[in-house]
Amino acid sequence: MFVPPSYADLGKSSRDLFNKGYGFGLVKLDLKTKSSSGVEFTTSGTSNTDSGKATGSLETKYKMKDYGITFTEKWTTENTVAAEISLEDKLAKGLKLTFDTTFVPNTGKKSGKLKTAYKRDYINLGCDVDFDFVGPTIYSAAVFGYEGWIIGHQMAFDTAKSKLAQSNFSLGYRAGDFQLHTHVNDGAEFGGSIYQKVNNKVETAVSLAWTAGSNNTRFGIATKYQIDQDAYVSAKVNNSTLIGLGYTHTLRPGVKLTLSGLIDAKNIHAGGHKVGLSFELEA
Question: pTM score, two decimals?
Answer without folding.
Answer: 0.89
